[in-house]
Amino acid sequence: MIEIKGVYFAYDEDTPVLKNINLNIERGEWVAIIGPNGSGKSTLARQINGLLLPDSGNVCVEGLSVLNSEQLWQIRAKVAFVFQNPDNQLVATSVEDDIAFGPENLGLEPELITERVENALNITGLQQLRNKPPHLLSGGEKQRVAIAGALAMAAEYLIMDEPTSMLDPHLRTQVLGAVRQLHANYNMGIVYVTNILEEAFLADRVVALANGVIVAQGTPERVFADTTLISRLGLELPPVCRISSLLADAGYERLRGIGDLDQLVEVLCKLS
Ligand SMILES: Nc1ncnc2c1ncn2[C@@H]1O[C@H](COP(=O)(O)OP(=O)(O)OP(=O)(O)O)[C@@H](O)[C@H]1O
Ligand SMILES: [Mg+2]
User: Fold this and answer.
1) How far from the centroid of its chain's Cα atoms is residue 80's Cα?
2) Cα(118) to centroid(ligand 2), Å
């Protein structure tokens, strides 16, 4: 479990960016973090693997604390991070070397590394690109290499900070497909920062941040049903949620919170 306990953090002393954040994330859970620009989402994501350390409070992963420098290295082997800009995270001269980089740093046996790299290439659909230099890949392919790297490290948690924001819809679908695989087949805990609420809908739980404070959390259906909150956050509901919410306001209460198009059509057909 990831335990974020009473975390305060400021880049400069006068203006705290995170104020008393308390949040637990289970292994195998998919949590989306949403909130307006500057609300502290990236700062929070970076606390989880100790890229930033809390000024007070603590962050623990499977009982290990980011405040203990020995344990911080163990945490970094358990928690992988995928950044918004795919160009900032690939280090090697070929896709397969890049995926092998993490397990090599962990000092694993070469046979085990090969096995893990093969598996990661398969799961993320990158077999054809294995010898290509990462800088020649598309943005979506680069993000999938980063995700494959997390898988090869056998990370237990994957933190992603707006990993699709620079991608077109087709590549976005590819990246989300890879995340789904890791979540479904490897019981990985996913922390997914996004302002695209369609993507947040895939999560088990949505956590909304504003001004460094958690202002709401719950299932996507429940959080997105609060249209006042969503517009206060300056975010936009997915079209299906907007339709179900307008119909609910017009008296069709059973439609409130539906965000899946097929489900909306099914319930509507039953009503008529
Ligand atoms: N390196 C930094 N030094 C000083 N202030 C920073 C730094 N990074 C972020 N901040 C400030 O901290 C606050 C929270 O920033 P953060 O990047 O966590 O927000 P965010 O919710 O991820 O925003 P966005 O949606 O734009 O990515 C902002 O007011 C920002 O200006
Ligand atoms: Mg950010």
Assistant:
1) 10
2) 32
Q: To test the ligand 1 pocket, which listed residue (8, 19, 41) has its Cβ within 8 A of the most ligand atoms? A: 41
118-153 pLDDT tens trace: 999 988 889 999 999 999 998 888 988 988 898 898
pLDDT band (50, 70, 90) for residue 18: very high
Closest CA to 212 of 3, 25, 9: 9
The model carries a pTM of 0.90
Please answer whether residues 225 and 257 qualify as being in contact, where contact means their C-beta atoms are separated by less than 8 angstroms.
yes
Q: List the residue whose alpha carbon is closest to atom 11 of ligand 1.
A: 38
Q: Which domains does the chain have, with CATH numbers?
A: 2-220 (3.40.50.300)
- List, for residues 188-203, the tens digit of each pLDDT value: 999 999 998 989 999 9
